[in-house]
Specification:
The complex is a heterodimer of chains A (285) and B (269). Chain A has 285 residues and is an alpha/beta fold. Chain A has one domain: 3-Layer(aba) Sandwich (Rossmann fold), CATH 3.40.50.300. Helix content of chain A is 38%, strand content 22%. In chain B, 83% of the residues lie in helices and 0% in strands. In chain B, helix 4 crosses helix 6, helix 5 packs across helix 6 and helix 7 packs across helix 8. Chain B starts with a helix and ends with a helix. The relative contact order of chain B is 0.11. Classes of the chains: A alpha/beta (285), B mainly alpha (269). At the A-B interface, helix 3 and helix 5 of A face helix 7, helix 8 and helix 10 of B.
């Protein structure tokens, strides 16, 4: 019931944006061709990401799973255009990525809201950069805050919000730009289980309503299984794709359902096998 | 969250009472302090023209403000401060941003700024007088140097301590070029910048007073000197009180509201 409400609202909000800026609201394809990353740390060359090839269809939801420091975040950052790859290239919707663009918005684990702005101005930040007039962008910010169930918090400051609310604001701040691709770098990683479940369901609903392409990095195997069309398991640094799982379970998927758990167990085995024994514990699944 | 909100609202009247009590305690303290001062004066250890009591100083202050030259003198000093501080502010913001963002500049100019910070700016006055003459330009030069390095270092610290994720997020949301500075870097650094601004202002104020002692034209610092020349300790003390009042007022008008806003927004205690 609440979900249907959300879909209806989002459909409306997306239509409003399409009117304003003539952008498509659906997803675009991503082509990742031989992308790798090396960097210099304390005089030593560190290979963060082994060359990765990946094709993502428009509107696909892909979960990237792997131990800490395996380069998943680096890959998202490269796709977002925030750092250049050491080799290879990214095509988004057929066009080569050269620097950041608001067709691909990255969400961070720490939400990265601006503490000097209130919630509404945070959400409107990207619209301001795009040159939208004040009144119009405030109206849209309110609309998207409603979408993430934060009406009434327009004038709150970041420190007054809980972790889950901050992620909702970050989501609204991204969605208001109507990006074709959402790059989510463990956005729910620091949240408690209940908040996390709720946000997962809302994300899935928004995804279903808009058809955006989503790359979702997580440590949590069951979260990956519940959300992903595909789950890619990464090896420890230098990260490469160990194995790819297509998840065909019907949606919405319950985290507690035995099929989810079975699938998660299978993936976890691969994750374990690819991991050095000293790597971090996997009690998170 | 709504629970937090209601407790915040409920605390408002209590906060008012706490503030009132604080002022009452403060008042009592000053009444005691002035009484002790008056008591010592009545012991007549020193002649009253060297050690006047609070009532005589208050009378001198009143007379200076209503009939004397205290207000025009304060205006002269404030004008110098305003000009000098504005110059420091513009230079300091640019210099601080450059230091915080450019490694080469930081390694070279940065060390110089740190060194200059160790030199009380009134030490520049003799040189300034040689260069500019005993005039406005020399004293404004000293005020500029008084505030410049504190402001620069404050901006630099703020920029350096800004979490890189803010810049990433901003670039990701379409912020480019100068806007990254004006809409992200500077506001993100504001708490540290504010510290630099406050320190810069107090250094500028001190250097100005020190410099004005050497000047013959009317100013607050010069009134202190005149008081000494007239053997009038009451005037000297009254001018000192005046200087404190001006200083505290500026702090309350210029910095306190900004500081309060920053604390409110960032949730700093």
């Amino acid at each position: 019931m609440a979900e249907r409400h959300l879909v209806a609202q989002h459909g409306h909000a997306a239509a409003g944006m399409a009117d304003a800026s003539e952008q498509p609201s659906g997803g675009i394809s991503l082509e990742i061709v031989g992308v790798s990353k090396r960097f210099l740390a304390r005089g030593r060359m560190v290979e963060a990401l082994a060359p990765v090839d990946l094709q993502v269809k428009a509107g696909e939801l892909i979960c990237l799973l792997g131990p800490s420091g395996c380069g998943k975040s680096t890959l998202l950052s490269i796709i977002a255009g925030l750092e250049p790859p050491s080799s290879g290239l990214i095509r988004a919707g057929g066009r080569k990525v050269q620097g950041p663009g608001i067709d691909r918005v990255l969400l961070f684990q720490e939400a990265a809201l601006f503490p000097w702005l209130d919630v509404q101005h945070n959400v409107a930040f990207g619209l301001r950069q795009a040159g939208m007039p004040e009144g119009e962008r405030m109206r849209m910010a309110r609309e998207y805050l409603e979408l993430v169930h934060l009406s009434g918090f327009e004038h709150s400051y970041v420190h007054q919000l809980s972790g889950g609310m901050r992620q909702r604001v970050a989501l609204a701040r991204a969605l208001v730009l109507n990006p074709a691709v959402l790059l989510m770098d463990e956005p729910f990683g620091a949240l408690d289980a209940m908040t996390r479940d709720k946000l997962q369901i809302e994300l899935e609903t928004i995804w279903a309503a808009t058809g955006k392409t989503i790359l979702f990095v997580t440590h949590n195997v069951r979260e990956a299984v519940a959300l992903g069309d595909r789950v890619l398991v990464f090896s420890p640094r230098p990260g490469r794709i160990l194995q790819e799982f297509s998840i065909t379970l019907p949606r919405p998927r319950s985290l507690e359902h035995h099929q989810t758990i079975d699938q998660a167990r299978e993936i976890l085995a691969v994750l374990h096998a690819g991991q050095r024994p000293t790597e971090e514990a996997n009690d998170e699944w | 969250m709504s629970g937090e909100m209601t407790t915040m609202l409920a605390e408002q009247p209590r906060l008012g009472r706490v503030r009132l009590m604080r002022w009452i305690r403060r008042l009592i303290f000053y009444v005691i302090l002035l009484s002790i001062w008056e008591g010592i004066v009545r012991l007549e250890i020193w002649p009253p023209y060297l050690f006047p009591g609070p009532l005589i100083v208050a009378a001198a202050l009143w007379e200076g403000v209503t009939q004397g030259l205290f207000l025009p003198a304060a205006l002269v000093s404030l004008r110098r401060l305003a000009i000098g501080y504005s110059i420091s502010l513009s230079l300091g913001l640019v210099l601080g941003l450059l230091l915080g963002r450019n490694k080469l500049i930081q390694e070279t100019v940065g060390s110089l700024v740190l060194g200059m910070q160790a030199l009380p700016s009134v030490c520049w006055l003799p040189l300034a007088i040689l260069w500019f003459g005993l005039n406005e330009r020399a004293i404004i030069f000293v005020v500029v140097l008084g505030a410049l390095f504190s402001i620069t270092l404050g901006v630099e610290a703020g920029v350096k301590n800004t979490p890189p994720v803010y810049l990433k997020a901003a670039r990701n949301l379409g912020a480019r070029g100068v806007r990254l500075y004006t809409q992200v870097l500077l506001p993100a650094a504001l708490p540290a910048i504010l510290n630099g601004l406050k320190q810069g202002w107090s250094f500028a104020w001190r250097s100005l007073m020190a410099g004005e002692l050497l000047y013959y034209t009317l100013s607050l610092g010069n009134l202190l000197q005149t008081g000494r020349d007239l053997n009038d300790a009451a005037q000297v003390m009254a001018v000192m009180v005046m200087i404190v009042i001006v200083g505290v007022t500026i702090d309350q008008i210029l910095f306190a509201p900004v500081e309060r806003r920053v604390r409110e927004r960032w949730g700093l205690a």
